[in-house]
Amino acid sequence: MPANGNRPLKLQFGLINHEGRYLTAETFGFKVNASAPSLKKKQIWTLEQDSQDTQVVYLRSHLGRYLASDKDGKVTCEADGHNSDCRFLIVAQSDGRWALQSEQHLRFFGGSRDYLSCFAQILTDAELWAVHLALHPQANLLSVARKRYAHLSKEDGEIAVDLNIPWGVAALLTLVYLDGKYCLKTCDSRFLSNDGKLLTQSGRATAYTLELKCGKLAFKDCEGKYLSPMGPTGTLRSGRCSKPGKDELFDLEESHPQVVLMAANGRYVSIRQGVSLAANQEDETDMETFQMEIDKETRKCTFRTSQGNYWALVAHGGIQSTATELSANTMFAVEWLGHKVALKANNGKYICIKKNGQLLAVSDSIGEDEQLTLKLINRPMLILRGENGFICHHKNSNTLDASRSVYDIFTLQFSNGVYHIKGVDGQFWYVNSAGLVCSDGETPEGFTLELLEHGRLAIRGKNGKYLRGDQGGTLKGDGLSLSSSALWEY
């Protein structure tokens, strides 16, 4: 069986100093300061580990340059490779903040505004940085020791760490950032408490500080103990350890979209009958759920089954779920047709549904039998991030901001080929006559989603136009073509 196909997310974050300001890499002159009040592009740093010494890290700016300190404590950010002045050690503090120590010169990095240096020999508040993760907050959580994924187990009222493949909506976890700490939220909007129980409200027992060890994450609770999987089902709760070992380490992995497909005959495409794919089922189970993995270069898509195999084009246009490796015959081009999609196989033919429900790639054009309704099932909680930041309710009006460093969680509901997007207050998104996306609708308006790129989707309003973030950071529903401002991480 192929591995899960998910890669650990690159650790990207903002660093907040003792004055609540973010470490910033300026575009001009490769200067650094700590003046910004919020996390935007210039405040995002990527952590890279040294290949020989896992304790040593490099901090890469959004310009692809590395933070460095010389023997006099002067800090720059123009090195374009890993040189000795760029080597730092992370010294984690009990409150979750980090001290960054130059490995070469053994001094600590800190300061405020334009006065940053790496010259302190002892730690004060000025040398401590809070970590604000900048990656998309919805992910799959993999236990390093057990090599199993976490998921909500509704029957047992817990998060269990016992999945081989993160499947279905239950495997989606959302990291919620609150006052320098993180909560883990399940797909039914409950928070993980350190005793393993799931609570409807966040509080002291649901807040964890993030620690990094050998490039992996550990979650430290309010008592100084770490989350780890316990017992046969891997119940996630705090153990006895006050130092993280292998059992306490996790990877966050990107969560691919998982979908169900309904054919023109009103039935779901399924693998329940064996290896050949057929649209002949009336309910949605794991057998009717497929993971869409979009190739970064070709934008073509593979469909993976819950058993870990891929759809593949076989002789005479047949489609079977037998492939264990990627090839040209496991790639399908997705054509987005408003409320429906059509799939083109590697033989240049469209997939159509035969009278007995069988899927065959034999059609030259798109008619009713070639059209499928595609429904995204593993984003009931929707968090959208564009090129300038997250989508969030505007403070003083019914519009939406698309350039915020904090996010709102929206609810995604599917109905007859379209989606309704609902805010925390229970009101719906709609596009008004001026082309603004508003969030105070009493009745739901239909939007269509197009899963176009690896990790990114586009949203069309009922006017057929794309939702995009404009220059001022406002969300508008007036995009005529697909631009970078209309693509959203989800």
UniProtKB/TrEMBL annotation:
<keyword id="KW-0009">Actin-binding</keyword>
<protein>
    <recommendedName>
        <fullName>Fascin</fullName>
    </recommendedName>
</protein>
<dbReference type="GO" id="GO:0016477">
    <property type="term" value="P:cell migration"/>
</dbReference>
<dbReference type="Pfam" id="PF06268">
    <property type="entry name" value="Fascin"/>
</dbReference>
<dbReference type="GO" id="GO:0009653">
    <property type="term" value="P:anatomical structure morphogenesis"/>
</dbReference>
<keyword id="KW-0966">Cell projection</keyword>
<dbReference type="GO" id="GO:0051017">
    <property type="term" value="P:actin filament bundle assembly"/>
</dbReference>
<dbReference type="InterPro" id="IPR010431">
    <property type="entry name" value="Fascin"/>
</dbReference>
<dbReference type="InterPro" id="IPR022768">
    <property type="entry name" value="Fascin-like_dom"/>
</dbReference>
<feature type="domain" description="Fascin-like">
    <location>
        <begin position="264"/>
        <end position="372"/>
    </location>
</feature>
<dbReference type="GO" id="GO:0032420">
    <property type="term" value="C:stereocilium"/>
</dbReference>
<dbReference type="InterPro" id="IPR024703">
    <property type="entry name" value="Fascin_metazoans"/>
</dbReference>
<dbReference type="InterPro" id="IPR008999">
    <property type="entry name" value="Actin-crosslinking"/>
</dbReference>
<keyword id="KW-0206">Cytoskeleton</keyword>
<feature type="domain" description="Fascin-like">
    <location>
        <begin position="21"/>
        <end position="131"/>
    </location>
</feature>
<dbReference type="GO" id="GO:0007163">
    <property type="term" value="P:establishment or maintenance of cell polarity"/>
</dbReference>
<dbReference type="GO" id="GO:0051015">
    <property type="term" value="F:actin filament binding"/>
</dbReference>
<feature type="domain" description="Fascin-like">
    <location>
        <begin position="140"/>
        <end position="252"/>
    </location>
</feature>
<feature type="domain" description="Fascin-like">
    <location>
        <begin position="388"/>
        <end position="490"/>
    </location>
</feature>
<keyword id="KW-0963">Cytoplasm</keyword>
<dbReference type="GO" id="GO:0030674">
    <property type="term" value="F:protein-macromolecule adaptor activity"/>
</dbReference>
<dbReference type="GO" id="GO:0015629">
    <property type="term" value="C:actin cytoskeleton"/>
</dbReference>
<dbReference type="GO" id="GO:0005737">
    <property type="term" value="C:cytoplasm"/>
</dbReference>
<comment type="similarity">
    <text>Belongs to the fascin family.</text>
</comment>
